[in-house]
Amino acid sequence: MFKNLLDIQNLDKATVEKIVDTAKKFKSGKLSVNMPDKAVCLMFCENSTRTKLSFELAAKNLGMKTLNFECSTSSFSKGESLEATVDNLAAMGVNALVLRDRTNGIAAELAKNIRYPVAILNAGDGNHAHPTQALLDFYTMLEKMGTVEGKKISIIGDIAHSRVARSNIQLLNKFGANVHICAPSYFAANDFCGAKVTMHTDLESALSGADVVMCLRIQRERLENDFKLPVDDYISGYQLKSENLEKFAKKGALLMHPGPVNPGYEMSEELFKSERAKTILEQVTNGVYIRMAVLYLLLSEGAAV
């Protein structure tokens, strides 16, 4: 079906549906897999909790061997290139590399340049793409709503620096969602590879009638050193609270967040601790099953039992 997972743009609807259907089978216990002959290397050159650990758990749930690559203590410091490193991993018997890095496009570039067959999975590259996050978010929406077609899905926060927003917008567009984004001017963006979005600078209009509200954190690690965040302005104009969610969004609208949540900034402490926020942990749960599905579909050869 696919040799690498680099970007949502590279996946057609049928492939997305196959990934989600496989994740459902894993979650329901209808599919059991044991792949002890496969090895997965986790190369996270940026910090991560949910993505890294869920990929590791997903691989172990499939019976795969896992290796954790330490970027800070690797031969990168001796001048070895990423391509040469991955070729060496292939020679050791690694079948898949899960890569996170701050450089936009690095996963796709690597997939073009390595000499030996290793499946490359993009676990987040700069502010460019995070395909498995978009897939797990989509799966969670389908569980709750059955479809995203015609649904108003509002993504609010630091759009400019968010790979999660870009991947979600591309995927949701494929399935007919009505995607809205909301950000102050200093966090706005319009580079969505031709995807259709409605842009807002006003929180009320973005929330009005929304079926799903997805908050994004402020990507402080990607801000320029001389950027002075107007914290009070952001909180007063764009912080999601129970009162504005209840007043403007549809009754029972899903509250989502890719994590980590910074309560008191993009979302109020009260809302974060409320029952409405439980979907955020359900996203984390579904991330394990989506990543199991991706690894299985990339590496399976009669492994189902």
Description:
This protein has two domains: 8-130 and 285-299, Rossmann fold (3-Layer(aba) Sandwich); 131-283, Rossmann fold (3-Layer(aba) Sandwich), CATH 3.40.50.1370. The strands form two sheets. The chain has a five-stranded parallel sheet with strand order 7-6-5-8-9. The chain is built from eleven helices and nine strands. It is an alpha/beta fold. Helices cover 39% and strands 14% of the residues. Strand 3 (96-101), helix 4 and strand 4 form a beta-alpha-beta unit. The two termini are 20 Å apart.
Supply the CATH architecture of the largest domain. Answer: 3-Layer(aba) Sandwich
**Largest β-sheet summary:** 5 strands, parallel
Q: Identify the CATH class of the largest domain.
A: Alpha Beta
- The domain count comes to 2
Sum up the overall morphology in one term.
globular
Uncertain residue ranges: none
Number of helices: 11
Helical residue percent band? 25-40%
CATH topology of the largest domain: Rossmann fold
Structural class by helix and strand composition:
alpha/beta
Classify the beta-strand content into a percent band.
5-15%
* SSE sequence, one letter per element: HEHEHEHEHEHEEHEHHEHH
Q: Nearest-angstrom radius of gyration?
A: 19 Å
Short description:
By secondary structure, the protein is α/β, with parallel strands linked by helices. The protein contains 11 helices and 9 strands.
